[in-house]
Specification:
Blueprint lengths: L8 E6 L3 H13 L3 E7 L3 H11 L3 E3 L2 H5 L6 E4 L6 H10 L3 E4 L7 H14 L3 E3 L7 H11 L6 E9 L4 H4 L12 H4 L3 H17 L2 E9 L10 E8 L4 E7 L8 E8 L2 E5 L7 E5 L5 E3 L9 H11 L9 H15 L3
Parallel strand pairs: 1-2, 1-4, 2-3, 4-5, 5-6, 7-10
Antiparallel strand pairs: 7-11, 8-9, 9-10, 11-12, 12-13, 13-14
Length: 334
Amino acid sequence: MTGSNTKTIKWGIIGAGDVCEVKSGPALQNVEGSALVAVMRRNPELAQDFAQRHGVSKWYSDADDLINDPEVNAIYIATPPNTHQYYALKVAAAGKIVYVEKPMARNFAEAQTMIEACKKADVPLYVAFYRRALPNFLKIKELLLEKAIGDVRFVNISLYKPIKPDIVGGSANEKNWRNQPEIAGGGYFHDLACHQLDALDFLFGPIIKANGIAKNQANAYLADDIIIGNFEFESGVLGTGTWCFSVAQTLEIEKTTIVGSKGQISFSYFGDHSVLLEIEGKESQKFTFDISKHIQQPFVQTMINELNGVGECQSNGISAARTSWVMDKICGIE
């Protein structure tokens, strides 16, 4: 990706908060053909602090000022989900590349509005489902294409977490936007399961049927804390998932298993980046990978490549909206 035809994508960030410190902000700076030139936070002191620590030349406290900066030609929307649609429409209207944090929106209807706006403005729309570019998920896809476990029968997601003060926030839990449906679209299911369901879309193709039950059992916050879902992929593979955020600490688990006619593949999404392959009659194999602390960097590279006419980015508005649709169906959102 070198040469006179390569254009530099000059990024601005709306909402330069925690997710931008390590995961994404440095990634926008480290990839060839990519530069982070401006950041915005509503608190001007925090915006200036982020800019100075990360070597960014400009900072703003008003999103419109950043959107209208003539040097910026792409904008990363790293705010909570309730403002994704609002800012995406503004960025699209300004004719600039749109990159949105996950989940894409609070629901499928908002995701569709974002797609339509970007299509009308003729600007690209990307969503930060960066696992599609990580080596462990590329390895899983390779194993599936090789039919290492034979014909795939089903996939199961298990994610159980206890209620911890650092999650719920104790008496200050109302300040945790991830548990406020009007901001997040739901609760921890929307924050975490979107990564899982999107990666399965990457591995198996679109989900065409989905249903489920969503309840609040522990009453620790407003959002549902247990979700059980069933889904079917266009390819014929079936799936199930149980997401519970009120179990005993000894029962905490995060594991996904793909079961085939000859064996199974097991892996985690968060923290552990290894992949376990178990085939009938053979010794199990564990594949391990070195993942950059700037975890979005491989994905950012695919965006920059596509924008320069080299290769294809695997997560866009169309693919991400499918995950919003699935989550709506599982949670019974019409």
